[in-house]
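[retry 2/3] Regulator of nonsense transcripts 2: previous attempt timed out, resubmitting with same input.
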Amino acid sequence: RKHLTEFIAEASERLSLRTILLEQNLAIAGKWPDDAFFRNFLDSQKDALLSEFESLNLSKYVEEVATAIVEAKIKLTDIPFMLRLCSAMYQRYSDFGILFFDAWKKSFSSHKDLKNTNLSKLRVDLALFADLIQSNIFREAEP
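[retry 2/3] Regulator of nonsense transcripts 2: success.
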């Protein structure tokens, strides 16, 4: 009888949790920000990103992080922070430099037709890219 009571209590708890999650998920449906929201880089996110970075294990997401950094819409004033973030990624994950460089190559190859290119973003990207080279995040190929 005791086992039956415990089973009923656990089943009721799981059902209640599912009901709550269903209601929350239905309430949020259609209210998500568009993809551009996640590509914009805000000053208010800087400290949170660095503090969260210290506690996260991103080893399975290094390529996604590299791509997200390349695609982020940043300003010239964001470059010092981006250098710190990229340096932290490079120091922690050995394959970051290679994956990051590949993401940059893809980005730059998409700028072949300058008519469809956002020149302001390209200017900031080139400045960041130059600083990344000077910071030795992109190593020379070994002979």
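[retry 2/3] Regulator of nonsense transcripts 2: The longest helix spans residues 2-28.
[retry 2/3] clearing retry counter.
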